[in-house]
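Human: Can I borrow your eye for a moment on a structure tokenisation matter? Separate attempts, laid side by side, tell us more than any discussion would. Could you pick a protein and write out its sequence and tokenised fold? No explanation is needed for now; the record alone will do.

Assistant:
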Amino acid sequence: MKEILFGAISGTVAALGMGGGTILILLLGLFTDMQQHLIQGTNLIFFIPTSIVAIFMNVKNKTINYKLSFVIIISGIIGAIVGSKFSFMIDNENLKRYFGIFLLFIAFFEIYSLFRQYRLEKKENNK
């Protein structure tokens, strides 16, 4: 039952464009006894059908920059090959630790972005 809930939460977050895979990795890491490599592999399989649905919806709504997408796709494929080879050289506990640090960086960046946006809006409203 929890797997269905995890999939629904991750799919919803993914559809919003906010990193459903990151949420899935977090949920599987916290609430299962799976190894980090297996969690990340499961996330990659999860990503395929959810991405196909998201692509279809974005094509339908004409919200894709195809030229930019092509560059990002090619770079992403190269990065996936390098990252995959690198991840298998890291033991499970360190991989978990690095993923946690990665999430902290994202959290700090998001908080900083919100704070910066707030300051800019406040400055514009005072003009």
Q: What stands out?
A: Residues 110 and 116 are 10 Å apart (CA to CA). Residues 92-125 form the longest helix (34 residues). The helical segments are 2-15, 20-31, 36-60, 66-87, 92-125.
